[in-house]
Amino acid sequence: MISHNILLFLIKTFSIMFVGFIIFRYFISKKYLSVLSKLFVEFLIPALILNKFILHFNMTLLKDYWYIPLFTLFVLFLSYIMSLFLRKAMKIKFLSEFTAMLTFTNAGYLVLPIILEIFRDTSKNDAIIFNFMYTLLVSFLLWSLGVYLITGKNKKIDIRSLPTPFIITILAIILAVINTKKIIPPFVFKSLNILGLIGVYGIMLVLGGILSQIPFNKTKVYGKETLRFVIIKNFLYPLIFLGILHFIHLNSVLKAVLFMVTITPPATNLAIISERYPINKRGHDYIYSSIFWSYVTSIISIPIFLIIYFMVPL
Predict the structure, then answer these.
(1) What is the pLDDT of residues 276-293, one digit of tens each?
(2) How far is it, in rounded angstroms, from Cα 137 to Cα 115?
């Protein structure tokens, strides 16, 4: 059953990403990427957040899992420390770029479709809630620490770059705790759920579009450096966290979500950061090449680690 669900995730998610790659590469102007991104990130995915939190979140869950954002800091800190060790051991040339890409994964949008296929019933609702609680701090850190890691300069958080889901998650927690679901008609939740699902898979179209903007000539440069990164990010990095999580006693659904955020490729916003802020051309090309091939390789690495996690006794 798990293998079937993993196959569904691969077919649905990467097929949509591939379609997004093709249409934005050859048929539709990239200016529409930002429009679609805002639609999915600022309106449709927040609909899913409101639906799941108001319906399924409560004071008990808040008391039991308030510490999840601390795990965000824990995972990012470990990732940062690992990057410092690995870049020295593997003789990485692009130190700051390597550290940024290893530290910040696509912890939100690529994890959601995995959750939708892997989990069922109440565990799916919990997993979605846990994932949004985990990503609560990611945007702040990506657009501050992430910018600093890539550019080497302190930058104030660009509020325009912070996605609406951060604000909506806080609002949804408040609305859930005061039990507003009693006064909201059921059809509202059904509508929010449908809109949210469109947002989850729609953002895959945008991810494919973002990858399509990477010039092919930049995906071929720094072959050895890119290969080192892909091996570390897509295979070694998840193995290390698999071992760490094995010794941490947590709710099984939460532990699975924490593992999922480690098996995804780097956040595509790192490529946007490298465009928005001035960095040297060699580092810029290395980021593009590494992100592109990490996503291509994840078609193989993500299912491998999902199978290991769910089907092999650890």
Answers:
(1) 666 666 667 788 888 889
(2) 20
Nearest by Cα to 133 from 267, 258, 259: 258
The answer to whether the beta carbons of residues 199 and 50 sit under 8 Å apart is: no
How far apart, in Å, are the Cα atoms of 225 and each of 74, 122, 185, 234? 27, 43, 55, 14
Closest CA to 106 of 246, 208, 213, 250: 208
Q: What is the pLDDT of residues 117-133, one digit of tens each?
A: 888 777 899 999 999 99
- Cα 109 from Cα 160, distance rounded (Å): 19
pLDDT tops 70 at residue 34? yes
